Amino acid sequence: MLKNIRLERPLAVIDLETTGIDTKIDRIIEISVLKLAPGGDVDHRTRRVNPGVPIPPEATAIHGITDDDVAEMPSFRGIAPSLTKFLDGCDLAGFNVLNYDLKLLVAEYNRVGLGFSVAGRKVIDTCRIYHQREPRDLTAAFRFYCGLDHEGAHGAAADVLATAAILDAQVARYRDLPRTVEGLHGHCNDPDAMDMGGMFGKDEDGAIVLIRGKYKGRSLNEIARAKPDYLEWMQREDFFDDTKRIALEALKQAS
What we know:
single chain; 255 residues; alpha/beta; 5-stranded mixed β-sheet
């Protein structure tokens, strides 16, 4: 399958479908591994997993996997031993695997008390290669949208001028983009969120609920009473101030 890469030991190409994008708390619901051997043998296995938590609608909208689809599937604990064996002695590859897939996989192993070692493995991230060869930085955006070289790149004064020009050029290029700051804000952020980090929203009755994270769909007041440590943790982490304020107000009301 690989025509231009020489393998000295098996290479496992990995992709995960998950309940969300938080590598610390979200769960695997499908894992696919393409195992390529030095001799040319190919072993491609895909397995769905019951995450033990509801799959958010926004996640289903991306990968199409529902709670019913995984209801009869094994848990990650159930597949972990065989997956460990399948990946034994393999180097790893994936798209954004270093920032996402591998971190989430390690978190799942840690959660079931088994651990997954990356020591001695080589890891290839095709996303990093892509960004290195086809930059997605301010200079590249200025050249793409404005057709100009970014003189003085990484100087704050030059960067803000370039950013303003890029924004204006983007609105001109994409006719479906809003023409107002309020509209563009809505385009860049979750319209249902109450805070910049997109942690909190409101249900049909107007009650505040969590729309991301470990307790998606749960009432904020309920979490403040039953799991105050989660909201206290938010105060210590790098959430935006509006997220912390909403969480703190709920904690005060529950005390």
